[in-house]
Amino acid sequence: MNFKFVYKICTKSEWQETKKKGLLTGSKKDLEDGYIHLSADNQVAGTLKKFYQNQKDLILLKIDTLKLDHLIWEQASDGNMFPHLYSSLDISNVIEELEIEEEYEKTNNYCEECKKEDESVFQNLILSSFKICNSCKTAKTIFPL
Ligand SMILES: [Zn+2]
Q1: Dist. CA 136 → ligand 1 center (Å)
Q2: What's the 59 CA to ligand 1 centre distance in angstroms?
Q3: The pTM is what?
Q4: What is the residue-level pLDDT of the chain in tens, covering all 145 positions?
Q5: CA 80 to centroid of ligand 1, rounded, Å
Q6: Per-residue DSSP letters for 34-77?
Q7: How far is the CA of 46 from the centre of ligand 1 (A)?
Q8: Hey, what CATH topology would domain 5-100 get?
Q9: At CA 75, angle to CA 43 and CA 135, rounded to 5?
Q10: Which of 16, 25, 56, 95 registers the highest number of CB atoms within 10 A of its CB?
C-alpha cells in the first residue's frame, strides 16, 4: 500500500462541479457520514466493484496526501484500513484525473504476462497502465527485463 497517494471515484458531472468550486465536498454518502470516503491504491478496484457497479462516466482522482491535514486511516467493517478525509478537499491536491471506461473491469482482468484472470490486473491497469497481475508485477520488480 502506498500512503503517499489516495484515490477518489466520482462521476464526470460531479468532477465538473468540483472544478468550478475548487473544492470537493463529497457525495451524498460522504456528507451523511461526515467525511469523504477515499481509497488506497489497492482498494480502488474493490471500491469500484462494491459501490459503482454499472455506473457510467466515472473519473478516478489521484490525490497527493502530503498536505491533507484531516486525513485519517480508519478500520472499516471488513477489517481493512481506509483513508477518510474529515474536511473538504482542495482540488490543488488532485494530481491526476483518470477516466474509467465502461465495461473496463470485465474485459480487463486478463494478465498480459501469464494470461490468467485476476482482480489485480484491472487495478494495475488503472494505476500504472500495465495490464499485469500482482504476481507478475512482483516478479518484474525483482527481475527487471
Ligand atoms: Zn500475471
Answers
A1: 4
A2: 26
A3: 0.76
A4: 678 999 999 999 999 999 999 999 998 889 999 999 999 988 888 888 888 887 888 999 999 999 998 999 999 888 889 999 999 999 999 999 988 876 555 566 889 899 888 888 888 887 777 888 999 988 776 655 4
A5: 25
A6: TSEE-B-GGGHHHHHHHH-TT--SEEEEEEE-TT-TTEEEEE-T
A7: 19
A8: ADP-ribosylation fold (3.20.170)
A9: 35
A10: 25
